[in-house]
Design goal:
The chain contains four helices and four strands. With 164 residues, the protein is mainly alpha-helical. α1 packs across α4.
């Protein structure tokens, strides 16, 4: 999956979360911080798990690797779609332009689907149905005509027999 595709999925994910909560984009914070191991003196260490939003996003993007997600987040930050408040991916907000891009992406995805369906319907399905219906009607009419012709021939044969 490309970095730009992941970027759009991140923005749509954030937009949907904001819409679910019914708040403004700058009031909702996201934690996309990847897991890390903190090593203490004395050989002890502590594992900090992935941020909650990163875990949910990994399911949507269908990846266990966060490297591409981090690259996409960096792109979103540099493009001004996301604001990283602490510069550690754990307190991020969606900007107005990020929200607008997410809406635009969703509308475009629906439009692409409609165009694909429209092409399928107009160029493949409808002509196929028209051909099948035409063949059935032609077959039915020719069968009726054949039956009618057979009846006429039977009558003519009977008339000829009577004439002899």
């Amino acid at each position: 999956m490309k970095k730009e595709e992941i970027l759009d999925q991140i923005l749509v994910f954030m937009k949907n979360e904001i819409s679910e909560k019914g708040d403004k984009p700058h009031n909702i914070y996201f934690n996309f911080k990847p897991s890390e191991v903190i090593r203490y003196s004395g050989g002890k260490s502590k594992v900090i798990p992935d941020g909650e939003n990163l875990l949910n996003l990994k399911k949507i993007v269908k990846t266990e690797h966060h490297e591409l997600i981090i690259l996409a987040l960096n792109l979103a930050i540099s493009e001004g779609f996301i604001k990283d408040i602490h510069q550690k991916y754990e307190c991020m907000t969606l900007t107005g332009s990020g929200f607008a891009r997410a809406k635009s992406f969703e509308a475009n995805e629906n439009g692409v689907w409609k165009r694909r369906c429209g092409y399928f319907l107009d160029k493949i399905f409808v002509p196929l149905i028209v051909s099948v219906v035409t063949a059935l009607i032609t077959s039915h009419l020719s069968q009726k005509n054949t039956e009618a012709e057979i009846k006429i021939l039977k009558k003519e044969i009977e008339w000829i027999k009577e004439q002899k």
